[in-house]
Amino acid sequence: MIPLLFGVFTVLLLINLPMAFAIGIASIATVFATENLPLHSVVTRMFVGVDSFELLAIPFFIAAGEIMNAATITERIVNFSRSIVGHIRGGLAHVTIVSAMIFSGISGSATADASAIGSMMIPSMVRARFGRDFAVAVNASSSAMGPIIPPSIMMVIYGSIANVSIAKLFLGGFIPGVLIGFGLMGVAYYLSVRRGYRAEARASLKEVWKTFKAAILALLMPVVIMVGLLTGAFTPTEAGVVAVVYAILIGRFVYKSIAFRDLGHLFANAAITTATAMLIIATATVFAWLLAWFGFGANVVQVLLNISRDPVIVLFLIIAFLLLLGLFVEGIPVLIIFTPILIPIVAQLHIDPIFFGVILVMTIVIASVTPLVGVLN
């Protein structure tokens, strides 16, 4: 039945059916063709897939990102980034990367970063005679930091599946995320020198201080979340609630850029985004359950361990496989379907599940930048 499951799924992807429906229809067709599986088990498994307290963090972080974006937070972050790195060769590229690095600590989503930062920076880079392809590539690559630098929606999903501390996952992703940002700045500088892209005028210390004061409350939001998580003051789900309340307070009473009547529209947008994500999570859970039912995970474990029992080699094989898979499938389904399969391998090789979770999320997000799917482009 595994060939049927993957075959139907592949055909539905080729006809460009939305991911959630492709996964769901393939799963339903496989259950329908299996004699000892009742059709109502699909609904049961979909419910089980989203029936998690940890996953409640997702709508709250999405709502916080919507409110922050509406409250001119993105503009303030971009202005602050421009004042501190705009004078480096290829200035607007560095502004995009640093802005995405900061915004990653607010939204927890790569697509939210790509939309919020890209809508401002891509037109600015094109007007400044940067290549359009270069501008899009910088925005897509820098947005990949969204699920790595905490908070992270993908890490919430991984933590709920693998039953590991989400707070530790958040902490584990901070340094790799920042290092990715510095690496992207190095590549952007090299390409800017080769292509003759110019820098912005250097900001004075007075201008840096002015933009810093304007953005300080936005910069404090990730700090508040991480301190609260690490001290045990609140859970990841409660951190999402804190983020929403924080965004409303500074947007309404400090920046005065949103009104209470705007919240209905913002929450509706967040609800639509959440519903899309939850439908993918629900259907991908059914898909993963079917793979487990037919013993696919055990076969994968056996194949990998037959190739090598060296943790480094196995990790490289997993990374290569996920990067290849990411050419065709969006990140969240890959995470949900393959985390239950890969966790037993990690356990047998004594690889720390927190470390593996960070590697897994980083690999999936990098794959999200690449064609053919390339959801961040």
Question: Could you walk me through the main structural features you see in this protein, from its secondary elements to its overall organization?
Answer:
The protein is mainly α and 377 residues long. 78% of the residues lie in helices and 0% in strands. The chain is built from 17 helices and no strands. Helix 3 (40-50) packs across helix 13 and helix 9 packs across helix 16. It starts with a helix and ends in an 8-residue tail after the last helix.
Could you provide a short overview of the structure?
With 377 residues, this protein is mostly helical.
Note the main attributes of this structure.
mainly alpha; 377 residues; single chain
Measured on Cα atoms, how large is the radius of gyration? 21 Å
Question: What share of residues are in beta strands?
Answer: under 5%
- Please, how many helices? 17
- Class per helix and strand makeup: mainly alpha
Percent range of helical residues: over 70%
The helix/strand series, from N terminus to C terminus, equals: HHHHHHHHHHHHHHHHH
What is the overall silhouette? Answer: globular
Tell me the major beta sheet.
none
Question: How many beta-strand segments?
Answer: 0
Amino- and carboxy-terminal Cα gap: 35 Å
SSE map:
Blueprint lengths: L1 H13 L4 H15 L6 H11 L6 H14 L2 H13 L5 H17 L2 H18 L4 H12 L9 H10 L3 H30 L9 H26 L5 H19 L5 H34 L2 H12 L3 H15 L5 H18 L4 H17 L8
Helix pairs in contact: 1-2, 2-13, 3-13, 4-12, 4-13, 5-6, 5-11, 6-7, 6-8, 6-10, 7-8, 9-16, 9-17, 10-17, 11-12, 13-16, 14-16, 15-17, 16-17
